[in-house]
Amino acid sequence: MPLLQGMEEFQNVSAGLQWAIFIVGCLIAIVAAISVGISIWLFVQYLTFNRTINSRNLSGKDAARMILDKHGLQHIKVSVVGSMMFGNSYSHYFKKVRLRRLTTNKNSITSLAMGAQKSALAILDKEGDKDMRARVILTPLMYFGPLAFIPIIAIGVIIDILFFNFSGVATLIASILGLSIYAVSFVLSVMTLKTEKKAQDRACRILKQENMATDEEIGMMKELFKLYNIQYVNDIILELLQLIMRVLQLVAKAQQNAKD
Question: Residue 1 above 50 pLDDT?
Answer without folding.
Answer: no
